[in-house]
Amino acid sequence: MSSGPTFSFATTADDVATVFVDEIKGKNVLVTGTSLKSIGFETARVIAKYANSVIISGYNAERFKSPFSRLRKKSHKRTIYALVLDLSSFASVRKAAAEINAQPEPLHVLINNAAASFVDFKLTEDGLETQLATDHVGPFLFTRLLTPKLLASATPAYTPRVVFVSSAAQAIGTGVDFDALENPDPAEYSKPLAYGQAKSANCLTAIDLPKRSKGKINAYSLHPGVIFTNVYEKENSIPTLQSIGTLDENKEAAAGIPFKTLPQGAATTIAAAFDPRLNDQPGAFLDNSTVANDQLAPHSSDPAKAEKLWNVTEKIIGESFVF
């Protein structure tokens, strides 16, 4: 990256936002997955200090009443919207996107943060495996439907952004299994492999979106770090987290694993959304709030795989992007 502020493992979301406050001011931002004790909520909390408006979302209206209330109290009278969005359901995604598109304001930044992590095999109402549906296909459709809203924020000096919160898990396995994506099979299902595939798909989508839009939209993916979020408290997730070595036998953080705090975990998302030094690096992967393309596995950075994934996912959702 060009000269300017330097960030590290210990950098917090507030640290990054303070540096880029002028970039955040006046922006309208949507963050998916904003339950309490989540990276998404911390991201929205910090952005709401300076942005024109922030839209938060969750799949259960009752569940995010508390985050919404807390955010409004901390937002210095800026506009906060709450959006019901279940990314595992095409119908819910379409309804939520229609609600946003009905608003008069443009959308400057879309942060695809929400994810289903290490869940049991289950088919969605659209016939997809839940983890890949929630983490990749749903955000892909949501981005497609909000593209006009994003393009409406563009000016000669500003290019709208889409951020995909991926993970170092993008390196797990051999990448997206296209057969499993289109024809999920419970006999072949593995929680960590499906998670890795979804996170690889995030990276590939971020690489292809700027190309497909011919530079009209910039996109980035990132590893937020290992953070003790609410995922670590879910009984169904704990055995998998123990098997991959992030939790010990006592369900506590495993020794030797460098965990970040929530403020540290949200830092890279805010850098991806607002660091102007990324303008000439569309599709970049970030870690510790800095470009880290060298950390991408070959299957998560292959342009041919990115193109194939895009085409297959458009087929699944039944429509194409229009820029």
From TrEMBL:
A UniProt-annotated Pfam family: adh_short
Coiled coil ranges: none
UniProt KW ATP-binding keyword: no
Membrane spanning stretches: none
Highest taxon listed in the record's lineage: Eukaryota
Keywords, alphabetical: Oxidoreductase
SUPFAM superfamilies, alphabetized: NAD(P)-binding Rossmann-fold domains
GO molecular function: oxidoreductase activity
InterPro entries: NAD(P)-bd_dom_sf, SDR_fam
Family: Belongs to the short-chain dehydrogenases/reductases (SDR) family.
PANTHER family reported for this sequence: RETINOL DEHYDROGENASE (PTHR24320), RETINOL DEHYDROGENASE 11 (PTHR24320:SF283)
Protein name: Uncharacterized protein
Organism taxonomic ancestry: Eukaryota, Fungi, Dikarya, Basidiomycota, Agaricomycotina
